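Lab meeting prep.
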Amino acid sequence: MNADRPFAWDKFALYELCAQNPPRDARLLRAIHQDGRSRRARQRADLTLGEDFCGTAALSRAWCDLLPRGRAIGVDNDRPTLARAREMAAGCAGLRLVLSDVMRVRDKADVIAVLNFSICEMHERARLARYLRHARARLRPGGCLICDLYGGADAFETGLLDQRIKPPPAPHPGARDKVTYSWEQRRADPLTGRVIDAMHFEVTPPRRSGRTPQVLLNAFVYDWRLWSVPELRDAMAEAGFARTRVYPRTAAATDADGNLYVRAVEDPAEVGGSFNVFVAGRL
């Protein structure tokens, strides 16, 4: 942001505010990696995260904050997005950002994360399979690939959902703004699994701020192949992952030190009629 101009939100900052919870997800990913491992393995603090399709790399930044001895490698092929990521990551030790197609990256990682439903950018199963094999080859022993998916009874319903979002506290310059986030599923085909989704933002600053309200329509538009959980698990198994598990986006328990513990879903009733879950493939 230019310090000489009045503060204004950009779409990337609004995305992080409205659609992500990187500190929570970083802790959950670490807990999934640690699930079922020995006490010594659970205490490792030098883990490397590979964040594919990283966008502004908010998750990678949160990972480095969580594990000061850890590292993160954020990969994205969109130059403006990665340029914004570099601005946001200024001073973040341990993070390396790479402008590249994810299929060209060879860096090893303990955890590879494909969040924000980015796995659905791959429309053909053959392309999905190639990516899963590539990700598996990048994992260190004991590593895991973790993707998120949404699904359930209303996964292919169209419509618009508005949500009022609480802005960051002061001294953030937008602390008193009213922020509305809208998620629109404007097209959905259950026969092909294809969906068109869009994100819109509206910001109303305080009247006396002298700032102009902002409306960002179609800030992000996605053309996805919405893979089902069993489809993704089958593809992971065929790509050579020894085990696959499904985890909720909540912790099963937290210890006195604030470490999260997770438990894989065993009963289908646990996911409910509509769900947002992590699918993990382990070596």
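Slide two material, second protein:
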Amino acid sequence: MNDTATFSIFPLFPSTIVGTVLKEDLSGLSAVRDFEYIPLNSDESQEAYKTKDNQILKRFPKERSIILDYFNRFATDVLKLTNSFAISSSWATRIEHNGFSQYHDHRNAAFSAVLYLDDVGGGGEIQFQNPNPSTVFLLNPEEWNTFNYEVYHITPSKDLLLFFPSYLSHRINRYKGKEPRYSIAVNFVPVGEFGRGDSTVNYQLLE
């Protein structure tokens, strides 16, 4: 092979994850610590809980507006979308010592988000699974990079807000911290008229 050969790389169809640290005052969300929680509904989860209420951000209109504004900036500035979006569901998650969750995705949503309320350390990363494996063979990379990742994890930190496509399978890795860790999960759906030709629809979210 010619040692001077070069490759043109076309990073097609990425599953885009975007993160930002919010500077706004989100202290009001600390009230979610006193909400009613139920265990995550899977035998493959441990010491992981969610609020019984799946619309908690309706109790926090200021914080709801902040999160939706950031999502709209992501949709318009990064994805270059002209659609309107609404929050379809939102809940708080509590992970206790030695807790973790199973792999899952978020059905009936276009995009999802997680906002971390604590900076407690101890692992509990959010780990995403590659939805497009490059081959059915289990190969041995010399190093991991964006072209061969099987999984990718992001370490939580206080006020970190992540957006990602709802189809991405993800889980909470084992959390070793002593204090419970809280986060807010959010789902987004398009509303109004969208689509093209005979695939045009008009959805309105019922409040």
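Talking points for slide two:
The chain has one helix and eleven strands.
The CA atoms of residues 54 and 91 lie 5 Å apart.
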